[in-house]
Design goal:
The complex is a heterodimer of chains A (about 140) and B (about 400). Chain A has helices at about 5-20, 20-30, and strands spanning about 35-40, 45, 60-65, 70-80, 90-95, 100-105, 115-125, 125-135. Chain A has about 140 residues and is of the alpha+beta class. Chain A has one domain (about 5-135). In chain A, the strands form two sheets. Chain A has a five-stranded mixed barrel with strand order 4-5-6-8-7. Chain A has a three-stranded antiparallel beta sheet with strand order 2-1-3. By secondary structure, chain B is an alpha/beta fold. Classes of the chains: A alpha+beta (about 140), B alpha/beta (about 400). The interface of A and B includes residues 26, 78 and 113 of A. The complex binds zinc ion. Zinc ion binds near residues 40, 42, 45 and 56 of chain A. The site of zinc ion has 8 residues of chain A, from loops.
Amino acid sequence: MDIREIISRASKEGIRHYGDSATLKFYDFLKERKFMTTKCRDCSNIDFPPRNFCTNCFSENIEWIEIPKRGRVYAFTNQKRALRFVYPDIIGFVEIEGVGRILTKLEGEDIKIGDEVEWDFQEVDGLTLHIFRKVKS
Amino acid sequence: MKIYIRGVYYDPVVKERHGETYKEVIHRVFKNVLKDAEISRDEVDGIVFTPPALGGLKQHFMHAHHMGHYLGQDFKVEVMVENGGSTAALAIRYAMLEIISGRCKSVMVICLDDRSDRIPEGMEFPHFIYDITIAQINLYGPFDSMYGIGAPIPYYAMAGQRYMYEKRVSREDLNYVAVRLRENAQNNEKALIRELIKPEDVTASKEICPPLHLHDCSIFAAGAAGILLVSEDFEKSNPSKKRKVSVKGYGEYHTPTSFLPNQLKYVPYYSEATRKASHEAFSQAKIKPHDVDVAEIYGVFSTTELTILEDMGFFEEGKSVYAFKEGNVGRESKLYVDPSGGRIACGHPAGATPAIEMCEVVTQLRGEANERQKKGRCDIGVVQAEHGMLNGSVVFVLEGEG
Ligand SMILES: [Zn+2]
């Protein structure tokens, strides 16, 4: 079996085992090219990663909302030996107002702390993942 | 109620262990701790283990049970404790609680770790890739791990980058962390890396995850350590000939974060858990940071070496780097930081690291550290451990008596 196919199968099994139904729903949304997380209808808290309950007030009265399109680079680095992406494999945390900091893949020239970025999607190992691209000023 | 650290021993930290199996290592550590404590095996009534390796693909189900059987001894306590990098610290805490509860008078803690990044003999590569992918999703979660996180380095690199940006710590100044820790390790025959380097050698070493270079990082290693804790009654009826070292304070705190926090309310390059654990331990011990003579901390990267010292209140935010630059963390300094060489130079077998730290602090407080012994007063020591990326932290305050 091809190594990429093995990583794909292991990833699906890992998501199922170490996640929950909200995790599966998050990846299903990504497949439909929707980048979503959960918001509490009772206290308005937004959780990322998504959950079936609110971590702030423990209410289970939650809804799925779309994550705002733009954020700013909080920090970034690159990995030289990771299995998922080819070099330059730049990953970073993007800070999104009201939501949180999200680990993602970054694309664009000369990325710096504070750069404005917006989300897009990329297919990797049978999954659709969010990535963020630098906004050209 | 007082608890004494009666016996300590740790193995030289090595890149890889050869010749002995983990059971043989545990038997040998057990004997060496008894020798240091000057007591017989029958006087040990409880035993606490860490897993033989953190992570890795081999099962260690019922490890404590198998070791009790292997050692051939009755115990009133026989258990294995695990929570990432804090594992050994929490194993020591478990032993303390058994003594505090009155059930045990003398509990041994045996901690070890081995390299677990190898393909097990006979396993085919595709099978290994499947298992390692699952293991990474376990550790880094079903969200982050899809971005190829295979080690914690990227998180520390990003937190460190932001710390340096916010606190204006220069790359040139950061080089001094590895320089000084290697100076400390020079007199520790058990340290893994003892060659001295110049500041420019750090940035000349391979870039692993910017801004971190190879010399900024602790590397995969194998090691083992044992600690014997005893009750006040035990110590009174069977006094040690060495300087007595007691646990004067304990603190522990955990925030609901994993590696670099997603929640905006946390400052990712500092650790609320370390601040709260330190405050609790220092309050219980009735000390202030400036009372501490020697500290062994869980600084696995140069940047966290700095931020932990600031979280613990030893230096103001953004200022700890100057202590390294000015050479003010060695045996002649007021605060001796990581006399063992710390994680970066002594080496970092994660599952054993907090116990190695405690061994080193006890050795300093007893005045037994020879060429690396702290000059001047050496009465109060601290040991700090963490897991994730400082999402949880454990702090002990130890005191040398008399
Ligand atoms: Zn809520």
